[in-house]
Amino acid sequence: MRILTYRGLDTAAIPGIDKLTDRLAADDFRSADVKKVGDNLYRARLDRSNRLLFSLYRHQGERCALLLEYIPSHAYEKSRFLARGVDIDEARIPAADAEAADAAPELPYLNPALPRFHLLDKVLSFDDDQEHIYQQPPPLVIIGSAGSGKTALTLEKMKDAAGDVLYVTRSPFLVQNARDLYYANGWQRDDQDVDFLSFREYLESIQVPDGKEITARAFAGWAARQRLPKALKDSQQLFEEFQGAITGADPAQAYLSRDAYLALGVKQSIYPQETRAEVYDLFEKYLRFLDEQGWFDANLVSHAWLSRVTPRYDWVVVDEVQDLTNVQLLLILKSLRAAEHFLLCGDANQIVHPNFFSWSKVKSLFWQQQADSPGTPTDLVRILNANFRNSPQVTETANRLLHIKHARFGSVDRESNYLVRSCGPTQGRVGLLQDSERVKRDLDQRTAASTRFAILVLHPEQKSEVRKFFRTPLVFSIHEAKGLEYENVLLYGFLSSEEKRFRDIAADLTEADLQGELRYARARDKGDKSLEIYKFYINALYVAVTRAVRNLYLIEPRPKQHLLALLGLTEVHEGVDDVEATTSSLEEWRHEAHRLELQGKEEQAAEIREQILKQRTPPWTVLRGEALETLKQKALERGEKKAGIALMEYALIYYDQRLLNALIQSGVKAAKQPDKALATLEKKHYLPYTLKHPGGVLRETEQYGVDFRNVFDQTPLMVASRMGNADLIEALLDRDADTNLVDANGLNAFQIALERACADERFARRRLPAVYERLAPPSMDIQVDGRLVKLDRRLMEYLMLCIAMVLFYQRLGENYATRAALLSAADFEEILAQFPESIVPVRRKKRQYISSILAKNEIDRDDPYNRKLFLRWRRGEYIINPRLSLRIEGDWRRIYDVLSPQRLGAQLRDPLRWRQHLVHDPNAAAEQALDSLRAHLQALSDGRKLAELSRGSRR
Ligand SMILES: Nc1ncnc2c1ncn2[C@@H]1O[C@H](COP(=O)(O)OP(=O)(O)OP(=O)(O)O)[C@@H](O)[C@H]1O
What we know:
Elements: E1 2-6, H1 17-25, E2 35-38, E3 41-45, E4 51-59, E5 62-71, E6 116-119, E7 123-124, H2 128-135, E8 140-144, H3 150-158, E9 163-169, H4 172-183, E10 192-198, H5 199-206, E11 212-213, H6 216-224, H7 235-246, H8 258-262, H9 273-293, E12 295-296, H10 298-305, E13 315-318, H11 326-333, E14 342-346, H12 359-369, E15 381-384, E16 386-387, H13 392-409, E17 421-422, E18 430-433, H14 437-447, E19 453-457, H15 462-469, E20 475-477, H16 478-481, E21 486-492, H17 499-506, H18 529-546, E22 548-555, H19 562-566, E23 572-573, H20 586-598, H21 602-612, H22 625-637, H23 641-653, H24 657-665, H25 674-686, H26 695-704, H27 716-722, H28 726-734, H29 749-759, H30 761-766, H31 768-775, E24 779-784, E25 787-792, H32 796-819, H33 825-833, H34 847-856, E26 870-874, E27 877-880, E28 885-888, E29 891-894, H35 895-898, E30 912-914, E31 918-920, H36 922-941
Parallel strand pairs: 1-5, 1-6, 8-14, 8-15, 9-10, 9-13, 11-12, 13-14, 16-17, 18-22, 18-23, 19-20, 19-21, 21-22
Antiparallel strand pairs: 2-3, 3-4, 4-5, 6-7, 24-25, 24-28, 26-27, 28-29, 30-31
Coiled coil: 579-611
Binding site for ATP: 144-151
ANK repeats: 712-744
């Protein structure tokens, strides 16, 4: 058996490791005392009390043991790889033998020369190029085609960096994905603080810009309202020109002057000289449009922010750098404490519209930055040219395209001048299909229900043509296709829609022009503008082809085209028997819709939900806004009994003590015994959420979507969380339930479980750990002093802010009404004391520690890591900073708009009577106190200073 060691495992520090690995290598599992302790997790015996954890794999018929973790003194509960909180009884776990490896998963690639492996979401053995780059110090620019492992390698390199680290890329989807990969399998490093930010979030972390970022869609809407001359009809192209040529390219200015724009060289603009004046007129209109309609342009903001950004990172990683402009990149690099501590990766061949990205520009940007620090390395660029994602057949076609592009237009630049070596795990097919009714019908039948088959067209208008023949919702124009990948891809009329262009591209090339390696060559005719325009078409085709992981099909009405012949596609197939016929489950379609939504492909996601999932809107009325007001009227003013009960239920769910008081006063007796009423309510409304087999809940999610709202404005995830049903939570998360949605109190599902745990010690001990693990969102977006702060869930501040939100309802009203007190360290201490160790370690539960966190995050405290979460009202008493905002479902909302101050209340108390006729009603005084608290919160939210307010003294 082959032995491989995880890169994070320090074998030198493990006693008896050599003897044990010898035994494993000899397949002697018996002497190694191997036992199975988890899913592909085995433990072997090092000595009496120490153990080693490993996994089994196969590679090309060979058995492999992958050593993962040292477990000293039976301390399985501290293991990174075993699920937290495991309880392993060594005497009861089954023994395993070496044959277990024969059924183990296959490793797609294994470098024969490297004994160490890496681990993200899966095991990786780096090839020689990857390993070489992995060993290089920064600065580094890693260039590689799609699927060459840039992201994987970069993330592994990032793990070696201590201090403050930034990972930034344009697409929010990629950011989320990268973060998940990074922390997969329980990875953590205490001396590292990583921000995973999309470029927009990065801008916001310097200063949140006013308005919303302009989108291609909004731009297209604006462009449609202009009278555009024919040459400027393509709004996407115009958008690219504004964002890549007029703004963004020159960091020295926000945008080019008219003269500077007109003077741009042929290669610096999409448009020929004669149309540029009109383009610039439109650009000026665009600037006005942004201003008037409250949009912002990321380049313009980036330029403005150059004067605000300060160094705050020790390491910066920029992924998909080709999607960023020069000014954006400069803004990122300026956040570095040491200018050369960066890692950039990207692929110039994946640019669809020419946005004027070039590696030489990136390099010169770096050199400008470095002007005053000579002695930095000159050779920054490293190239990855393997492909681990696509089948060899698809890679071969992509390589041919690179050849054609090279032969016709010269190299994009010296750095993007390489072919791709396929390490693709599976074989595939590339074929041309007959454009006939029968083929299309058969193809549709095989693919309509499959999430693994997508159709790509060049122009958005072609989508409606495709829909005449194909039912699949997975139809994309090339601009939408970037970043997507599917097992099977059909290009429909891709070349025929621009036959002349593609004919001109293929020109008189012959097979002989497509041989050998690419050599760096400049374009044949630099002045020929048309060549620039053609690049769009060839790049588009390149991107389209590389979306296919395994099989690529083309249907062309006119299949006899020279370019197709150059790609080796001369034979037209009439049968589609080879095409995989799959019916994806509803589950898979749900995932697909969700994945597309995350990537901003709303149109296709909506189509899936409508056509395939057939989701409906629930028939009931959700209690919010007007419906809630009407209910209040019926219950409180008209005294309707049924309405009274419904309103009481609402008040109980939302800790609305004021509403409960009103109900008691209007004679709803049950409201006097909230605990009893709550138990009844849970039986009445939440029973299906407590069952071991929650089929009823899941069926409802199938009808209405996983995040539907019940009458109380709660999603199924929120209710499952409230009931502490970890299995149901798991099932809902598997269906992509959204953990960020909030209820009518502004609390998300995780905070709802916290709310319960704060009030119920048993829940905190028994239910909270499993819920916490699954539901706490990785970070909270907060805004303080106009800047975005991503509060990571690993921080104590995250938990403290969440608890403060919960205590707002549970304690603040009572504290203030009875003692004129707010929230203190004692309140937090009391709550945290009942949380289990796995959530909060003992040292973090101590009063002193809690006080230090409150103090460190006071708004006026001078501390570099102050997140300004709390306002100190008076000594030892706090509220959440009223000037703090939270991002809720995409929009910034001030904290006391998210929470509901009108719900602050205190329990009714009996009037005090003394002598014979003197009566004091404490309830009126309490209400008065709370009114003044509400007024204070409002004033502080509006920007008044605490010192300006007259605060009541303690009673
Ligand atoms: N050495 C390796 N062995 C096996 N699989 C690998 C290896 N390196 C990368 N991969 C896998 O190949 C796939 C592509 O890698 P990755 O996403 O890092 O590529 P990329 O260059 O960033 O691609 P893109 O430009 O499309 O984002 C991933 O599934 C990754 O896990």
